[in-house]
Amino acid sequence: MNSTTEITADCRIDAGWVLTVDAHNSVLENHSIISSGGTIIECLPHSTADQRYPDLPVIDRRSSIAMPGLVNAHTHLGMHYLKGLADDKPLMEWLQKYIWPIEGKLLSSEFVAAGARHAVAESIAGGVTCVNDMYFFPDTVAQTCIDCGVRAVVGAPIMQLATPWANSLDECFDRAIAVHDRFRDHPTINTAFAPHAPYTVPVSALEKIATLSAELEALVHMHVHETETEVLDYIKSEGVRPIARLFEVGLINPYMIAVHLTQLTDDEINLLAQNGASAIHCPESNLKLASGFCPATSLVKAGVNTAIGTDSAASNNDLDMFGEMRTAALLAKAVSGDASALPAFEAIRMATINGAKAIGLDEQTGSLEAGKQLDLICIEPDISMQPMYDVASHVVYCANRERVTDVWVGGKKLLSEKRFTNIDVNEISKSAMHWQQKISATT
Predict the structure, then answer these.
(1) Which of 4, 55, 105, 365 is in Cβ range 3.0-4.6 Å of 375 for a Cys bridge?
(2) Beta bridge partners of 224
(3) CA 253 – CA 14 distance, rounded (Å)
(4) Cβ(15)–Cβ(33) below 8 Å
(5) Beta bridge partners of 128
(6) Is the pTM of this model over 0.85?
(7) What string of H, E and C letters represents the secondary structure of the chain?
(8) Among 344, 269, 339, CA closest to 21
(9) How large is the C-alpha radius of gyration of the chain?
(10) Distance CA 129, CA 409 (A)
(11) Whole-angstrom Cα distance, residue 402 to residue 217?
């Protein structure tokens, strides 16, 4: 350690346990995380930190578990005020009879900003430091995430249906490219093309997305094989399975973020693996909508980078990534008939570094290692987490988002001992009531 690093260190967080989520899944006891300017310098024992950084103030979380901030790899933040509006309905009925008609009446930049701000607040309180979002008015979502301090990839929706966001496919593309240009060099915001699904985007548009993605090195975030009915209907109308069509047009590649994937053959799993696409598993939304079961265990075994997302609060009904980790792990065991399937640390990786890799941010976030951003959360164990033989196991099977006490993103503290540093909870509550009344008046 050179003297320059010692002088520039400006933050020391002491934890009882540090889940680094490095390549070895290292769990370090009684260690300090040292950072400078929001970048991690090193992680070392408390006693060594005392000697190396004697004058650096200590943030004492020695009874807590420190781990990387969670990456929610599939969200629709702007839909937050549709939470609980149309529960216990199958996907297409839920979309066509409830969600799309209400969006047609109320969707606006104002609606999206309010819902996204509430969703981000819920996310931060639950330990989420980065989101991969897909919704209308992505520029508004991006600005909301900037204001609240979280990292985000915002997907510009591409679909054939006319919406308040864009009246045509051409306008979708124009707006998507404008969003890409606006945030191209932003330190915490990245962008993606977000074609809704193969059944709502014509082949010509898919081909154009593939070309633009390659030219701009832009991500493509898309619902793929969400339900059996969707796949069968597509075969009936197009003569091929959706993934086959996506492969034909050049969209199965490392830029592809394929969400849901409840209907996969072994050949399709291998196709995703061989071409470097990422899979996003949304276990609780898929269960709630009875969409099917993503073969997460098979995807992981095949080498597909597999991450976790909550989907929207309208179909989940929360943005609880701790709940998603636990559900993903338990569901994998039940579906495969193998109690060893998707062990706890794999679930943690799916909620952190795998999500970061899917959205191209694994060099910045997703693990606690030197050179990465200080995107860190602290979990305070309570009696439900005692005794604790295996920290990773307890994070997945015992902990919940209520145990999150502190959240940093890029070294900036967003949650301090369960209190927001830059979000007014009372204003969020007033906004929720305002939009509840407006939405109720339309139904």
Answers:
(1) 365
(2) 260
(3) 41
(4) yes
(5) 70
(6) yes
(7) CCHHHHHHCCEEEEEEEEECCCCCCCEEEEEEEEEECCEEEEEEEHHHHHHHCCCCCEEEEEEEEEEECEEEEEECHHHHHHCCCCCCCCHHHHHHHHHHHHHHHHCCHHHHHHHHHHHHHHHHHCCEEEEEEECCCHHHHHHHHHHHCCEEEEEEEECCCCCCCCCCHHHHHHHHHHHHHHCCCCCCEEEEEEECCHHHCCHHHHHHHHHHHHHHCCEEEEEECCCHHHHHHHHHHHCCCHHHHHHHCCCCCCCEEEEECCCCCHHHHHHHHHCCCEEEECHHHHHHCCCCCCCHHHHHHHCCEEEECCCCCCCCCCCCHHHHHHHHHHHHHHHHCCCCCCCHHHHHHHCCHHHHHHCCCCCCCCCCCCCCECCEEEECCCHHHCCCCCHHHHHHHCCCHHHEEEEEECCEEEEECCEECCCCHHHHHHHHHHHHHHHHHHC
(8) 344
(9) 21
(10) 6
(11) 38
pLDDT score, position 357: 98
Q: What is the pLDDT along the chain (443 residues), one digit of tens a residue?
A: 344 444 589 999 999 999 999 999 999 999 999 999 999 999 999 999 999 999 999 999 999 999 999 999 999 999 999 998 888 888 788 888 888 888 888 999 999 999 999 999 999 999 999 999 999 999 999 999 999 999 999 999 999 988 889 999 999 999 999 999 999 999 999 999 999 999 999 999 999 999 999 999 999 999 999 999 999 999 999 999 999 999 999 999 999 999 999 999 999 999 999 999 999 999 999 999 999 999 999 999 999 999 999 999 999 999 999 999 999 999 999 999 999 999 999 999 999 999 999 999 999 999 999 999 999 999 999 999 999 999 999 999 999 999 999 999 999 999 999 999 999 999 999 999 999 999 988 87
- Joined tokens for residue 275: 């071409």
Q: Write the CA distances from 63 to 17, 43, 122, 328, integer angstroms.
A: 8, 17, 24, 27
Phi then psi dihedrals of residue 97, to 5 deg? -95, -20
Overall size of the chain counted in residues:
443
Tokens read off for 131: 């989101």
Q: Taking a C-beta distance cutoff of 8 angstroms, is the pair 291, 227 a contact?
A: yes
What is the distance between the alpha carbons of residues 94 and 285, in angstroms, rounded to a whole number? 12
Question: What six digits make up the tokens of 261?
Answer: 């994937």
